[in-house]
Amino acid sequence: METVKEEITITAQITRFVREDILNLVPYMPSNEPCKIKLDANESPYDVPLEIKERIWKRLMDEHFNYYYDPTCDEVRENLSKYTGAKFDQIFVGSGGDEVIYDIIMAFAGPGRDVIIPFPTFSSYEIFSTIAGSNVIKVPLLKKQEKGKCFWDIPIDDIKKHFTKDKPQLMFLCHPNNPTGDYFDDDKLEDLIRDFNGIVAIDEAYFEFGGKTFADSISKYPNIIVIRTFSKIFSLAGLRVGYAIGHEDAIAQLFKVKMPYNVSLFSQIAAVEMLRQTDWLKKVQQEFIKERERLQNGLEKIDGVTVYPSSANFFLCELKKPRDMVYEELLKKGILTRRFGDDVLKDCLRFCIGTPEQNDLLLASLKEIMSSK
Can you give the residue ranges of the Aminotransferase class I/classII large domain (predicted)? Predict the structure, then answer.
């Protein structure tokens, strides 16, 4: 009994020490549910081929593990310059896209500054902004239906109501948006960028699946910072490599706030080798796009499933049956999907695009669940 009282006392004491704005913060907690088919985190189902891994191992064997590795990721930046067309000093590399997002917030937001986030979107924008002490302004996306198709639209006027001229702000735009799946209208986004007094962070984590980018608009809009990652098409989610493209003056600020030696030796070498595998990347890209079309057609044929359009490697689907029941039934069949806490997504699941065999099993399982009484 005394031990329980002591634990309660310690809990109350620690709670008293926590910042008030952090106390009620819900952390990002990926699912650890055991499964046969993992379709919850928008990862690539295709592992890096053994021959490419061997090239990476060979380079690693010649390196010194006892010394810190390149703190500014210069070789990665040189190869990214060739891949993206951006200049070397317009590129910043971080430990995954998450660290890049965090560093942008640390450099351009923080206490007393607003961070505007259209939602639903990637939850890290809000979590990291709260951790930094920023004032988070969430603006709901609009659900629309035209010509029998459902989609999500960005509310330009509602967002602009929060723009201020007296102090700089930060805004996140996910392009295409996660978890809704598709691009917003480019003219609307440019309208927001032109009128905004601050940095616009455009998250292009799924660039390779849709092909549209604002990276070539940096000279026109120097307040843009584009965020990308090696976690999707490059199949390096486990190694944590992300990068930013922006005006050199904006990129210079990110180097001021980043952690020293933030990207490991292993991750930098793997990123360089993957950037050289253009044939394999094109093959994977084509497979994803082909499977995306096939999976969409299959999902649209299942009664009770509304499929939102996607230019990424996943689909958001609204279900006529209880979302949690469908989630649990799929999990019983070994398929892990993603459900969200947002009220606006309470009837939705998100499915990552898997291999053809995985997609077939998902379609068959979902059809069985949705047709059962």
Answer: 36-365
